[in-house]
Amino acid sequence: MGSGIPIKNQALWLSSFDKPLELIELPVPDATPGSAVVQVLNTVVFPYADDIHQGRLPVFNLSLPLVPHPSHIGRVQAVGSDAVFAKPGDLIFFSAPVFARDDPNVSIIQGHHGGEGPQGRKLMQGEWRDGALQQYQKVPLENIYVLNEERLCRQLGYTPADLHEISFYSIAAGALCEAAQLQAGETICLGPATGTYGGITSDLALSLGANVIAIGRNEDNLARLAKQLGNPERFSYVVMTGDDKADAAAIRKATPDGRGVEVYNDWASGSLIGSPYFSAAIQTVRPEGRVVLSGAPSGTIALPYTLIMHQNIKIIGKVIVSRSGIDMIIRMVTLGLLKLGKHGGSTHSVYSLDQHHAAFQEAKEKSGFRVYTDIAPNPW
Question: Which residue range or ranges hold the Alcohol dehydrogenase-like C-terminal domain (predicted)?
Fold first, then answer.
């Protein structure tokens, strides 16, 4: 990155759900106390990004207009006067969940989710409205994580596109480590398992020493996931039929000694209403087990009241991971315990801001576990 103050800030502007994204120029933000201005190098495009931008997924509660999209890999351009560690030139990972500083019970995901209720809307419309699809983004200082560029980029050979896989692993860490408190030797059932998050969560759970049972409806896709993970001994899968009794029996049969699972992690996608596997999978959860809801479907699910009560099952919703969880993932990547990019079998198709239409289309058609589509607002 060159020295001096940037003279332009190209951005993708979402003014209405009825209009396509527009490439415009915005002012380069100033780094005020409590903030950093970051040159955005890469952000992974979600398969459902276009659906968000067209208002088809109201669960995200966006207040328009804004620059959309959440986390990214970037380089610090400037920091506020209260910064004590981060400095201009640092390579960073930016985590997009933002908490109101005068009420941490109120949160949004910058550029991506408007939070809940009037306080969430107020926070979304304020200082932290605009997301990652711009060249220079103003972010909360506490949301940046300085990366070891020498180790990650020069020794391990990672690019910003590779490093943005940290964002997916971080969300999985919130579900597995913070909500489920998954322990080595425990068995986790997770699904739908063949999307990006299902695959990432399977990979992380295996890295943590757990036994993994992936569930889904397409056997070919489940077999492909097993191959992508290296066909590990602690990984198996169950093809779901839609018959809850039969599916629950099949999951239980796949567990050690047929005793059931300690954890069920649900990843129903935003395109669904409710969860297709919840009613079967919860029947396999052992006493004192944990159910973690991490997907983004609309609608409701039915709960087996007496089963949950008699088995002392905990049901937890989880989407935002703490700083310690993200730090853990960055350490695992830095130490080589988690492999990114080509080292982990991933591919990245990287587009510029003015190629966003092609990027969103490719993401919708091709993206999945270890197959990623990215937008790079600035060159690496």
Answer: 200-324
